[in-house]
Design a protein that fits this description.
about 15% strand
């Protein structure tokens, strides 16, 4: 059994120190293997890069903030820097400004239930920009939390262009929809 932990849950500005503190002997002697994902940015805030090379050398299995990185200039630098490192990168494509306070996909059901909706374009606009960065730089990326048909189309088209991407959707999006609310 393997357990994967995200380093971003450690609220420290010194990720290497945090990683060292978390890898204490009781965990290392557990019957499960323990592996860490490193944060792309300090405290997963999307503002400043972490010590990526040092984290890779320390043994993280990949990098992700687990939430969208709104600053595409920073994201581009991250992709450039991590290209030769050879560790997986997982990114969440979402424009938080467009998403607003949505709690369900925008549409007839969100209006009927009186719930704030998240427009599909919150995912697809960010995804299109992210795919352009990947096309320009060529760093392999896993796109997580894809939840729209248009997002799946963009990914299909990008894969047809041979972009180095993989993608996934959360299980809840496979089991539930806005009618299930």
């Amino acid at each position: 059994m393997s357990i994967f932990c995200q380093i971003r849950t450690l609220r420290s500005t010194t990720p290497l120190l945090s990683l060292g503190c978390k890898l204490h002997p009781p965990l290392l002697s557990a019957p499960a293997s323990l592996a860490y994902w490193g944060a792309l940015t300090l405290e997963a805030k999307g503002q400043h890069m972490t010590e990526l090379a040092e984290l890779a050398a320390a043994g993280v299995v990949g990098f992700s903030d687990g939430q969208p990185i709104a600053n595409f200039a920073l994201l581009r630098r991250l992709l450039e820097y991590l290209q030769p490192v050879g560790k997986p990168i997982a990114l969440y494509a979402c424009d938080r400004a467009l998403a607003g306070n949505g709690v369900v996909r925008e549409g007839a059901n969100s209006m009927r239930f009186g719930l704030p909706g998240t427009p599909a374009i919150a995912e697809t606009a960010a995804l299109a920009a992210l795919l352009e960065c990947i096309a320009d730089i060529g760093t392999p990326v896993h796109l997580m939390r894809i939840s729209t048909a248009r997002g799946a189309e963009l990914i299909r088209d990008a894969k047809a262009r041979r972009l180095p991407i993989t993608a996934s959707t959360p299980w809840m999006h496979l089991l539930l929809n806005t009618q299930s609310v």
